[in-house]
Amino acid sequence: MSENNIPVAQGINWIYDPALNKGTAFTEEERDALGLHGLLPPGINTMSEQVLRVMGNYRRKRSDLERYIFLTALQDRNQTLFYRVLADYLEEMMPVIYTPTVGLACQEYVHIFRRPKGVFVSAKNKGRFSEILKNWPNKNVRVIVITDGERILGLGDLGVAGMGIPAGKLSLYTACAGIHPSWCLPVTIDVGTNNVDLQNDPLYFGMRNSRIRGEEYDSLIEEFIMAVEENFPNTLIQFEDFGNLNAFRLLNKYRSRICAFNDDIQGTASVALAGIYAAMRMTGQKLTDQKILFLGAGEAGTGIGDLIVSGMMDEGMTEQEARLKCWFTDSRGLVVKSREKLAEHKLAYAHDFEYHQYFIDAVKALKPTAIIGVSGQARAFTQPVLEAMAEFNERPLVFALSNPTSSAECTAKEAYAWTGGRAIFASGSPFEPVNIAGRNFEPGQGNNAYIFPGIGLGVIACKARHVTNEMFLAAARELADKVSEKDFKKGSIYPRLKKIREVSADIAVKVAEIAYDQGLATIDRPADLPSFIRSQMYEPNYRNYA
Ligand SMILES: NC(=O)C1=CN([C@@H]2O[C@H](COP(=O)(O)OP(=O)(O)OC[C@H]3O[C@@H](n4cnc5c(N)ncnc54)[C@H](OP(=O)(O)O)[C@@H]3O)[C@@H](O)[C@H]2O)C=CC1
Ligand SMILES: CC(=O)C(=O)O
Ligand SMILES: [Mg+2]
């Protein structure tokens, strides 16, 4: 304290602030200048030595949840070191900071909670959202990921415990696309939960009422958007893991008003289409040769369908022809014209065809070239389904995109074993390599994590006013182009995760090009766009404070 009882910046603050802390890597000069002598062990470590220590501790943990807690604590303690180890060990750590472990971490969130991340906006503070956003210490926020926790992965309603998802997505913005951590703000809006277990959990720290719906809900979201516009103008907003009662409506309401997109609808569409494009490179077919049957007709499913339709129209099909290539089943069976009270997002795919209640019957009747699982229904791609796909396709496309692993429509092993090793397989959560009949398969991860970081980087770099469908189409093409012959040989239709920073940068360039072409960019076009985009990317290295 100063003489006037005002706290003064002390050396210890450099250690307690995760954005500034270097731990034992503070140099002698920095310790002199910042008053750190005695507050740290006297020896000085390099960052590489610190990474060694982190990895030793990390690998000693006995479960992925413990590894998640450990990494989260590192992020809270020393942000630069956290992003360094993520950069160096992304393939090993991705399943821990992201799906599947982040799902478990959300389920356990209220029990493993240590330090808050991001901003919680609660309905009980209605009217004060702008004031709440002012409490966030970083004023230069460029990207917000917001959830209301209603559909966390395939795990359902987790209320405010869903905060693990925006926090995890934003860690990927930094790790996969070099968006500066201080530009990122995770937000959870608390509108209650219909999860009775959470309502009854004494440790739950969200509102225990059932979910607010209707106009009151919409007015809360509207107040939040206005508060963002006031406090962080020109910020990109990513809607994540909203229930589909709200997700489509919010996207339609805000996509042309602000700079926003829905990751589950649009990001997933882009990564799935990229997988199909890459598979077409593998088999020499065209997108328009495909007939796709979806298990699940929600955000991810119809989002993918809509982007496939755009891709097919680019190859010369009419919209009607392209829609007829996409078929959907939902919790009540095949989506067909004769069904009553179909939700609006399914109507364009309600074709004139006989109704089938069971997926296997729909598969046999339609003989699709591809099945895409986005239902959250574990093991719904049964042996008969996969055997049928192998019967009428030389190379059936099988995408089990539901997360986490426990919700996947089939495992990698099942997909290969039941198709005689002929499936072109991808999954939303990672699977270990599989050996079938002497052949090794290392399937790729069809996850929107390949898309949203690059979209965000491109949009932020040129300060685009909106995020458009053309950007997701371009991202899909760029991602598919990045898959190498080596990836194909392993059976993967996605590039290795260790290349993701490069891939994201290239996607960002395409996205920014579209923003310029569509007149949406608000800064002058740089002479060398790729170099400009790369110059914006954060590198997790220590700064010199001395
Ligand atoms: N890999 C990736 O990058 C991504 C994966 N996903 C995953 O996709 C899954 C779904 O997400 P999302 O589309 O947003 O969720 P939605 O709730 O919007 O949609 C789920 C769909 O699944 C259908 N469904 C539920 N039960 C069954 C069943 N037994 N048989 C057939 N269909 C069923 C629902 O039917 P009805 O319409 O009748 O309710 C609905 O159409 C989640 O597990 C999520 O993790 C999502 C985004 C990205
Ligand atoms: C990956 C993702 O966004 C989801 O499963 O919801
Ligand atoms: Mg999601």
From TrEMBL:
Binding-site residues for (S)-malate, renumbered to this chain: 151, 403, 447
Residues that bind a divalent metal cation: 240-241, 264
One of the GO BP terms on file: malate metabolic process
A Pfam family the protein falls into: malic
Active site: 98 (proton donor), 169 (proton acceptor)
Keyword Cytoplasm appears in the UniProt entry: no
UniProt cross-references to InterPro entries, sorted A to Z: Aminoacid_DH-like_N_sf, Malic_enzyme_CS, Malic_N_dom, Malic_N_dom_sf, Malic_NAD-bd, Malic_OxRdtase, NAD(P)-bd_dom_sf
Residue ranges annotated for the Malic enzyme N-terminal domain, each copy included: 75-255
Limits of the Malic enzyme NAD-binding domain: 265-516
Note on how the cofactor is bound: Divalent metal cations. Prefers magnesium or manganese.
Named cofactor requirement(s): Mn(2+); Mg(2+)
One term of GO molecular function: malate dehydrogenase (decarboxylating) (NADP+) activity
UniProt keyword Oxidoreductase present: yes
Family recorded in the similarity comment: Belongs to the malic enzymes family.
UniProt cross-references to NCBIfam families, sorted A to Z: PRK13529.1
Protein name per Swiss-Prot or TrEMBL: NAD-dependent malic enzyme, Mae-like
Species assigned in the record: Desulfonema limicola
